[in-house]
Structure formats: structure tokens, C-alpha cells
């Protein structure tokens, strides 16, 4: 995201460009993993308040002005957010749509929408609650309290923290590691993990087992196990 003068405020144009870019990246077989980032010091400071100011209820409802927002959460390919600095409001929600969140030491996560007389609208009450639980979510949403990178790590919102200089490099290193795996198994695994938020344990375990069985229909499963047994490095084809 690259609107540094507006702290990467997520305006309609940025969100529709992001959605169409994600369509292109998903369609490109050369692309295995998607990393989303901003600049040093700012991931995104939320939805564009100046753009939202004149809007009224009937218009936002009829336009469905959030319709492009969920595109990132519907990516089949793995997604990684590299968060430097502010991830506020819609910025925090956008990071939470990704599969993995890495942050730099100066990262700040918050859902300050109530301070603007509104409330989170793209996952700040739902994904956040599933990630960090009700108590932390309520405090963040109801008071606008922001989490530092260390707090976000302790709360389970993010998986790792790096110095600002190495954040993107580390994110790309992880992306490259995932890119070497079987793209088919990666998609199935991502589906299974995401299903954990939607299903009961017994249904989720059955779903996971069925997806696991389905990997036995792939060449990659044979390639991976064969390489292990013969002490070789596997090259996966996605087939
Ligand atoms: N929208 C529009 N412009 C913004 C935003 C924003 N969210 N954030 C910053 N800017 C602009 C500022 O207005 C300023 O512009 P200008 O130079 O024209 O005055 C410029 O960016 C630089 O910002 P600051 O001068 O404020 O920079 P600071 O370093 O002093 O502060 C902060 C940085 C702390 C990030 C501060 O700008 C801030 O608090 N921003 C707003 C954070 C916020 O409230 N975010 C929530 C927005 S609401 C939301 O995200 C709802 C999501 C609901 C789902 C999706 C709906 C579409």
C-alpha cells in the first residue's frame, strides 16, 4: 500500500486496486504467496475518514461500500502481512485478513473506530475476538487502547516481531519457504485452519481428516515422502 501522505488511509480507490491486484495474483500460476505491506512506520491508519465523512446510511448500504474489503480474506493463496508502525481500524482488520502477521518493534495495533462515533466494520469485532479473546477485544474496541508489537505477540494477534530493518526481508524469507511447498497441500491446509473458526471440533476434525486423505491423490504427497525416505530435497509441482 502506498499512500504515505495519508498514512495509507484505505480509500475506495486503494481498496478496489488491491482487490483487482489480488485477482491478478491469484490467477498467475507463478505467484505462490502474497505479502502485503506499507511503508516503514505505517501499515495502514484505517479506512479513509475524509472519504467516509459525507457518507450517509442509505448510500453506504446501497453501494455496499465494503464490498471490495473482504477480497483479501477470500484469497486461496497464502497471505502474509508485514506490519510496520500503525495498523489501526481497517488497517488492523486488513492485517487480520491475512494468514500470518509479522510486525516490527514499532508496530501498533488498534480499533479506534468508537472514538470516531462508529465501530469496526471489517472484522475488528469478529476476527480480533477469535484471535485474542473477548477481554482484550472489548478493551481495544471500547476504549481505543492500542497494542504494542510485544502485547500483540503475547495476545496471539501476530506470530513474530522483527527489527524494522529486517521485517520485509523476514516476511519474504517465510514467503519463499511456503512457496517451495506443494501449492495444493498449502491450499488444503489453509482451508482446514480457516475452518477451525467456522466448525465444531468434531466436524472440523472430520473435515481435516478428509482433506488429509485427499493429499494421497496428489503426486506431491508421493514426492515429499519419497524424498524424505531417500534423504533428498523434494521439488513439488502442485500436482
Ligand atoms: N483517514 C484519512 N486520512 C488519514 C487517516 C485516515 N484514517 N489517518 C491519517 N490520515 C491523514 C491525516 O489526516 C493527515 O492528513 P493531513 O496532512 O492532510 O492533515 C495525514 O494522514 C498524516 O496524519 P497525522 O498528521 O495524523 O499523522 P500523525 O503521525 O500525527 O498520526 C495516526 C498518525 C496516529 C495514524 C493518526 O493519523 C490517526 O489517528 N489516524 C486515524 C486512525 C483511525 O482513527 N483509524 C480508524 C479509521 S475508521 C476505520 O478504519 C473503520 C474501518 C471500518 C471497516 C472498513 C470501512 C471502509
TrEMBL record:
Pfam family name, one: ECH_1
EC number per UniProt: 4.2.1.17
GO molecular function list: enoyl-CoA hydratase activity
GO biological process: fatty acid beta-oxidation
Enzyme class: lyase
Tagged with keyword Repeat: no
Gene Ontology terms: cellular component: mitochondrion
Keyword annotations of the record: Lyase
InterPro entries: ClpP/crotonase-like_dom_sf, Enoyl-CoA_hyd/isom_CS, Enoyl-CoA_hydra/iso, Enoyl-CoA_hydra_C
Family: Belongs to the enoyl-CoA hydratase/isomerase family.
Protein name per the record: enoyl-CoA hydratase
Organism expressing this protein natively: Amphibalanus amphitrite (Striped barnacle)
Amino acid at each position: 500500500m502506498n499512500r504515505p501522505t495519508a498514512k495509507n488511509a484505505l480509500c475506495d480507490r486503494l481498496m478496489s486496486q488491491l482487490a483487482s491486484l489480488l485477482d491478478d495474483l491469484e490467477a498467475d500460476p507463478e505467484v505462490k504467496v502474497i505479502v502485503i505491506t506499507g511503508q516503514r512506520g505505517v501499515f495502514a491508519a484505517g479506512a479513509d475518514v475524509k472519504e467516509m465523512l459525507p457518507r450517509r446510511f442509505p448510500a453506504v448500504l446501497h453501494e455496499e461500500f465494503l464490498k471490495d474489503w473482504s477480497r483479501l480474506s477470500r484469497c486461496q493463496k497464502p497471505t502474509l502481512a508485514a506490519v510496520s508502525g500503525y495498523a489501526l481500524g481497517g488497517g488492523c482488520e486488513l492485517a487480520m485478513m491475512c494468514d500470518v502477521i509479522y510486525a516490527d518493534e514499532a508496530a501498533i495495533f488498534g480499533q479506534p473506530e468508537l472514538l470516531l462515533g462508529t465501530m469496526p466494520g471489517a472484522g475488528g469485532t469478529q476476527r480480533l475476538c477469535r484471535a485474542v479473546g473477548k477481554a482484550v477485544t472489548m478493551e481495544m474496541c471500547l476504549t481505543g487502547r492500542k497494542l504494542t508489537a510485544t502485547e500483540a505477540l503475547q495476545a496471539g494477534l501476530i506470530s513474530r516481531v522483527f527489527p524494522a530493518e529486517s521485517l520485509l526481508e523476514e516476511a519474504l524469507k517465510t514467503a519463499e519457504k511456503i512457496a517451495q511447498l506443494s501449492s495444493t497441500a498449502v491450499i488444503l491446509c489453509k482451508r482446514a485452519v480457516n475452518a477451525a473458526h467456522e466448525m465444531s471440533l468434531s466436524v472440523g476434525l472430520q473435515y481435516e481428516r478428509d482433506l488429509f486423505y485427499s493429499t494421497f491423490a496428489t503426486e506431491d504427497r508421493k514426492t515429499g515422502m519419497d524424498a524424505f525416505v531417500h534423504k533428498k530435497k523434494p521439488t513439488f509441482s502442485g500436482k
